[in-house]
Amino acid sequence: MAAHTLTSSSLSSISSSSELRKFNSYATFLQSFKSSNLLSSFIGNQLTIRQPNPNFVVLKRQSTNMTVSFSLPTSKREGVSAEKLPKWSARAIKSFAMGELEARKLKYPNTGTEALLMGILVEGTSQAAKILRANGITLFKVREEIVDLLGKSDMYYFSPEHPPLTEPAQKALDWAIDQKLKSGEDGEVTVSYLLLGIWEQKESAAHQIMVALGFNDVKVKELWKSMDKDIVCSHK
Q: Where residue 103 falls among pLDDT bands split at 50, 70, 90?
C-alpha cells in the first residue's frame, strides 16, 4: 500500500512538472511573438480583408450606372456616326434593363424579344406599357405564355449577368433606331419605338405572344400615335 501511494504521488508530481514546463514554454513563445509585432500585423491584415473600403464600392456602382444609362446595344449604321444616333429615353433604358432581369429570372441564356416585352411591362409607366395593359396584356399573362412557348430552363442553370441579345431582339432595337432616323425628328427613342420594333419581328416569340393575347394591327395604329410621348428628360 505504501509503495502504491508513493508511486501515485510521484506520477502526479511528474505530470504537474511537465504541464508547468509546457505552460512556461508557451508563455515565452507568445511573448516573443508579440514583441516582434507579427501578431498585430497578422490581426491588422485580417481586419483589412473583412472591412473593404466602402468608397471603392460606391465608385464602382456609379461607373456601372453611367455605362448603362446612355446607350443600348445597337448595330453600326453606314454614314451615321455614333454621336449622331438618337438617344434612348430613360423609360426605354429602364425597360431594357428590366428585360435583362426578367430573362435572368427565367434562367434563360439570352435576352429575347419576349424578355424585352416583359421589361416594358415591368417598367410600366410608358405609353406603350399602358396601351398593352389597356388591351389585357399583363406581365403575368405574358410570363405564362413565355413558359408555355419556350419552356422552363434547367433549375441548375444560371444566366449570365447580362444575357446577350437574340438576333430578333437585336433587330427590334435596330428597327427602333432606324425608324427614328427616318422620321427626321429630334428627340429620344421612346418605348413605343421599342415595342413596335418587337412587333415587326414577325417570327419572334414576343410577336406570337402578343397575337395570342389579342394584339393586332388596329392596336398598332394606336401605338404609332404615342411614338414621342414617353420623354421625361434629355441626356446631355
A: very high
Q: What is the mean pLDDT of residues 95-101?
A: 96
Q: What digits encode the pLDDT tens for the residues 46-95?
A: 434 444 444 433 333 333 333 343 568 777 666 666 777 889 999 999 99
Residue corresponding to grid cell 461607373: 63
104 and 163 Cβ atoms separated by less than 8 Å: yes
Cell 434612348 belongs to which residue? 88
Backbone angle region of 151, left / alpha / beta, with phi > 0 → left and psi within -120 to 50 → alpha: left
Reported pTM: 0.67
Angle between helices 139-150 and 113-123 (to 10 degrees): 170
Element (H, E) at 104: helix 90-105
Cα 229 to Cα 236: distance, rounded to the nearest angstrom: 19
CB 200, CB 175: distance < 8 Å? yes
Backbone angles phi, psi at 41, to 5 degrees: -65, -40
Cα–Cα dist 209/218, whole Å = 16
Let me know: does 111 contact 167? Beta carbons within 8 Å: no
Amino acid of residue 128: A
